[in-house]
Structure formats: C-alpha cells, structure tokens
Specification:
Order of helices and strands of chain A: HHHEHEHEEEEEEHEEEE
Shape of chain A: globular
Helix content of chain B: 40-55%
Largest sheet of chain A: 6 strands, parallel
Number of domains of chain B: 3
CATH topology of the largest domain in chain B: Rossmann fold
Largest interface: A-B, 77 and 99 residues
CATH topology of chain A: Rossmann fold
Bound molecules: iron/sulfur cluster
Oligomer: heterodimer
Radius of gyration of chain B: 25 Å
CATH superfamily of chain A: NagB/RpiA/CoA transferase-like
C-alpha cells in the first residue's frame, strides 16, 4: 500500500471510533472583526494600525525623499512601472534609481520600491501579490521597502481581504518591518526582510 | 539509587541564569497575549471556542479533508507526497533533493521537521541545511535543541549567544548587543539564501478548499528562503488542514495574538504553487509532504483534541511547571502542557519512557484557559495518567501507593498509624529501606506530623 493509502485507511479506522462527529459550525466572519482597530475611515484605521506595527506612512514624494536621505539610503531599485509616479522624482532629487534588480549585487540596493496590490485597514497590513510585485527579492532584501498603492485599494477587514484573493500563486501580507524578539525578548527590526517598511499612497 | 521524577530533576538542575530567562520570557508573552485579546475583542473566549469547533469538525472528517486538500494542491501545480512515518518523510525529501542534484538549502522553522530530526539526517547525507530563523540558527550553531515552540532560544541569554557567534566565526569579536547580534545574523544568512537551491518550510495551515499553504514568520525568513530558491518543499502535518479560506482569517487572528501578542504575524504568506513565469524570484517547483508520524494514533486515542493544536505556545508560557523546568525537561520536541499530552501519544513506542510527562502538572487549568483552540489539556492529562495506570507503567518518581491505600481504607489500621506516627518526626525516615518512600522523599521534605489530633479533639469534645 502507498503511504497515501496507508494514511487514509489509518484515518478512517481511527474515525470509526468517533461516535459523534462535529458539524461545521455556522458563523459569520464579522465575529472576529476587531472593532477598536476598525475605528475611523479605512485609511485612518490603516495608518494607525500600520504605524503601531512599526510601519511608516509617507504623505508625499518630498517626505519620502527626505526619509530616505535621512537614513542614508541613496541608491535603490524601482519597479519600472512606478518610475513615472515615484522613481523619476527621486532620481531628479539625486538618488540613484535602478529599474532592474540583480541578485549578485543585492547589497547595492538600499531601498526597493514596488507596487502593493492593496492593504488591510484592520491589521495595518500591506498586500503584496505576485501579479503586481515586479520582483519579490527587490521588496525584501533592501533595508527600506516602499510599497506603493492607492487609497481605494484598502480592504477594511481581514475577511474582506481574504474574500478578495485573486488567482495569484503567492500573496504576502506584510504587517510592519521584519522583526524578532528571539534574543532575550528584546524587539529588533530588520532581521531578514526590511528594517523599514514604508507605505506610499499615490 | 533514588530515581527522581525526571521533570523535577531538570527543574532543580537548570542554572539560575537559564531559569530566569525562561521565567521572564514566558511571563512577558503571557501578559502581551492577554492585553491584546481583551483590548481587541469583547468576547475572546467565544472565538477560541469557535476555532476549537472548526478544528474538531476538520479532524472528525479528516479523510475527506486530506483528499480535498490533495486535489486542490495538485490543481495548483503542487506535487503532493505522503509520509506515514518520519523515515518516509526523510526519504521522500532526500530523494527530491538528490534527483535534482541539490546540495544546499535553507530551512525555515518547522516543528514537524524538528519532530522527525530532518536537519541532522540531511546533513549526514551531505546536504548543507541551514536554519534561517534567528533562534533556530543559534540552536544549530550550538548543537542544542529548541526549548520553546515559538522562541526556541528562550533559555539563552545574549552573552551566551555572543560567545557562540564569536566561536563559530559569525563575528570576529564579542558583542552582546541584541541589535548587533541580529544584524550579524542578517548579514551572514543573506549569502546563504542567495546560494541555496532549495528551501524547506513547515506549514501553519492549509486550506482544503483552495490548497493555499499559509506560512507565518516575523523575521521574513521563509519569504527570503523561498525567493531565490528553485524548489520549495513544505513538510506539513496532516492535522494542519482547515476547511476554507475564510477559516484562515480566524486562525491567523488567534495565532498572532496567542503566540506573540500581535494581531498578525509580520509576514503571512499565502502560497498556492510554484511562481508564475512573470515573477523573477521564487520556486519553480513546489512540493507538499503530508506527514502522519503517529498522528493517526492520536486521532484514534481518547486524547484526539490535542490535534487541534496550532503551536502557538501560549500554554507553555502560562504553565508554572514549564516556567520552572524549561522546555528541555520534557525531553521531546514539544515541551510544556501541549508536549505533556502530545509527546507520549505521538511517540507511542516510547510511551513508557514519557508516561511521566502527564504527571508534571498541578492541573491548574491555565493551559486550557489560554488555548486558542480550547483544548481541554487538564482532562487529557488525566486520561493519559489513567492510560499509564491501565498499562501498569511505573514512572520514576511515582511510588506505588498501595501500602498507603491499605492503611487509608482500614479504619483500625489508620487509627493506630495516626497515634503512632508522631514518632515519625523523630525518625530518620529518609533512610528507611522502603524504595518507594525513598523515591518520594528524595524530592520532598515532610512537614511536621500532626496526625491524630482531629480524632483526639473529637473525643474530648464528646466527653465534655
Ligand atoms: S495546546 Fe493550545 S495553547 Fe498550547 S500550543 Fe497548542 S494551540 Fe497553543
């Protein structure tokens, strides 16, 4: 017998002993909405929750440029599709902006600008969907990741975001920067992924 | 030689330094969990009851859900494998790697992989297999084992880690600043990720409906491990299946809050197959290995509720025994209350050696109160104690109580014993040639004997 059949037959014989099999409980996904987190407009709720998770929201290009400058992040990657709306302005402000990401030079990219397909107000999460992410690594290896999105793309709740899953093979919810508390429970940001997670609305 | 209850021995022998790390770490996690649940929800209890019901339903129809998940995964282009034992899983994974000539991989934290000792096996077979979760990475450098489900190095402090980094050449000098430690690991692991040809992950959930595999990490290590790799292998216990995508929302809300006091874990990744051609980074091949390894035995037992577990560690954090003894005292992959139930069952052939674990609990009930899937852990511990009794398993530290039982059920013998036993206060009883008594006293000191006073008082009262 294959392992598959062995396992299935073991499951069946184990379940023979279960007299009362539980039915699937009927529930409405709104039972796990966190109401305090949803207060305000979706944008207000997103900003509040995203910032609480350690994220940064940039109100405009000038603020984004100043933020990058301040951190000494002068060189990075920008999704070619976002050059018009973000990349060119940064290049004009003196940043080195590349539109291709080469793995062998991963250390050269101090920031990565890619498109987010949306966000979740309730949890303060950015949604990176493979269909719109020009390169997963470009959104992951630089110290700063700038996720570019529109306010109209914010989902109010977690169940809303799940219900809107597209056909994409890979969807990531990023709720703030990469972090760990492995060493004595002390929170440190920037373990493997970005140490700064930025949301930029266009 | 006196044999002690093993968990007591561990608790006694653990260094003060380690014990402080475990106690402060677990207490902090418990507080955070409590605060966020009650801030966010009016009735968090209703949610964990609901989650428990969904899991119960899934387990009670597991054959159907396994088949449905398999079909959904295959539809998404995922290659599905089944492994009845740990050895089967190891052989399957090794052959996937060998057939493709893969010799370098990274691995993101997986309790199932710990359970079957996958890492040492792959290394023995000439495959470089590097743990990428910071805690697991440090465990691997130290050739240690994790002592906590979510925070594997809860038992280590920064000085130990800094010494390890220096010893292993991760850093040239000693520096115990947690940020420096973390960023040194970041720099070291990046090159490894970029060179790796495959990535092995666990799986937190699989939705049967869509075949979505959900992985959560705070560090981003599984995401980073996957991005440059050609092949992704996920080792997933058969009990990780949930019926629908909608259910994922509930479980993710509960997992983040219960594990680390976050609404959601930072990186929550929904994977439905190998990458599309338009995406430059990500695996071209994806495999899911469904692992049984004793889970069907647990399903057959009267403790099947433990299979609801979503490995959040809340029961470890809150448990007074775990806090004192640390996870290593439980001697298997799963420590704390969840381990006290799961390990003796999962490793059925070792039941006699692990039968002491269910006794390492005062049945205070805290583990059930915090459990996000409402597992009645204290009840399950009692059922396992009963099983040990039925199977006549004598664990160290559990003296047979029959002499005491005879005494207690015979009123005349009891009376005599009571009046005589004050003499016990003056006897060097610890050296009495009665083995069970020695075992018991090896770990305890007796309070001064006051037996018999109640009867005397009653008698005098009746006389007056
Ligand atoms: S038994 Fe419950 S509390 Fe303990 S780890 Fe599992 S899910 Fe969490």
């Amino acid at each position: 017998m294959s392992s598959r059949d062995t396992i299935l037959s073991k499951i069946r014989s184990a379940l023979d002993g279960v007299k009362e099999k539980s039915a699937y409980p009927d529930y409405d996904a709104s039972v796990f909405h966190s109401r305090p987190r949803l207060e305000g407009t979706p944008r207000e709720a997103f900003d509040r929750n995203f910032i609480a998770a350690g994220g940064e929201v940039m109100p405009d290009l000038a603020a984004l440029a100043a933020f990058l400058q301040q951190g000494g992040h002068t060189r990075g990657y920008c999704d070619p599709a976002l050059m018009d709306s973000v990349g060119l302005a940064l290049a004009a402000a003196g940043f080195t902006v590349e539109t291709s990401y080469e793995r062998s030079r991963y250390e050269d990219y101090q920031f990565g600008i890619t498109r987010a397909s949306g966000a979740i107000a309730e949890s303060g999460s950015l949604i990176l969907d493979d269909a719109l992410t020009s390169d997963r690594l470009a959104a992951l290896s630089p110290w700063v990741h700038v996720a570019v999105l529109r306010e109209s793309e914010i989902h109010r709740t977690i169940p809303d975001a799940i219900a809107a899953f597209g056909p994409s093979r890979n969807i990531l919810w990023a709720t703030g920067p990469s972090k760990t508390a492995d060493v004595e429970g002390i929170l440190i940001e920037g373990v493997h992924g970005p140490g700064e997670q930025v949301a930029f609305f266009i | 030689m006196i044999d002690h209850q093993l968990i007591d021995t561990y608790a006694r022998e653990i260094s003060d330094e380690k014990q402080t790390s475990v106690i402060t770490g677990s207490a902090a996690s418990t507080d955070k969990r409590y605060t966020i649940l009650f801030k966010d929800y009016e009735d968090p209890d209703a949610l964990r009851k609901l989650a428990g019901k969904i899991k119960d339903h899934t387990l009670h129809h597991l054959d159907r859900y396994v088949e449905q998940a398999e079909a959904s995964l295959q539809r998404n282009g995922v290659q599905v494998h089944f492994a009845d034992t740990g050895d089967d899983a190891k052989a399957t994974i090794l052959s996937i790697l060998q057939e493709r000539g893969i010799s370098k991989l990274t691995k993101s934290k997986s309790m199932a992989a710990e359970e079957i000792h996958l890492n040492p096996f792959l290394i023995e077979n000439g495959i470089e297999c590097l743990e990428s979760d910071l805690g697991e990475f440090i465990i691997q450098l130290d050739d240690d084992v994790p002592s906590h489900i979510v925070r594997p190095i809860i038992h280590k402090n920064r000085r130990e880690i800094a010494r390890t980094f220096q010893r292993e050449g991760i850093a040239a000098d000693y520096n115990d600043d947690p940020a420096t430690i973390t960023h040194r690991a970041r720099a070291f692991l990046r090159d490894k990720y970029m060179q790796a040809e495959a990535v092995i992950t666990g799986g937190n959930f699989i939705s049967a409906e869509s075949g979505r595999l959900v992985l959560v990490t705070n560090e981003g290590n599984s995401r980073f491990g996957m991005a440059p790799s050609k092949v992704h292998i996920a080792l997933v216990g058969i009990e990780k299946i949930v019926p629908t995508d909608r259910d994922l929302g509930l479980f993710l809300n509960l997992l983040g809050r219960s594990a680390t006091g976050q609404q959601l874990t930072v990186y929550t990744e929904f994977i439905t197959g190998p990458k599309d051609d338009s995406q430059p980074s990500g695996p071209e091949e994806m495999h899911v290995v469904f692992l049984n390894n004793g889970r069907t035995d647990v399903l057959e037992s009267n403790c099947r509720e433990i299979l609801r577990c979503i490995r959040c560690s809340a029961c470890q954090n809150v448990c007074p025994v775990y806090r004192q003894a640390s996870g290593h005292a439980y001697r298997t992959t799963y420590g704390g209350p969840v381990g006290a139930v799961l390990s003796p069952l999962l490793f059925g052939d070792q039941f006699p050696e692990l039968a002491d674990l269910p006794k390492a609990s005062s049945l205070c009930g805290a583990c059930n109160e915090v459990c996000p899937v409402d597992i009645p852990i204290p009840d399950l511990l009692l059922r396992l104690r009963d099983k040990a009794k039925r199977e006549h398993i004598h664990s160290p530290g559990a003296p047979p109580m029959s002499p005491f039982a005879t005494l207690a059920t015979s009123p005349s013998l009891w009376r005599t014993a009571m009046t005589m036993s004050k003499a016990m206060n003056h006897l060097p009883i610890q050296v009495a040639p009665v083995k069970p008594l020695q075992e018991w006293l090896g770990q305890r000191t007796l309070p001064e004997w006051h037996g018999g006073d109640f009867r005397k008082w009653m008698k005098n009262r009746n006389n007056s």
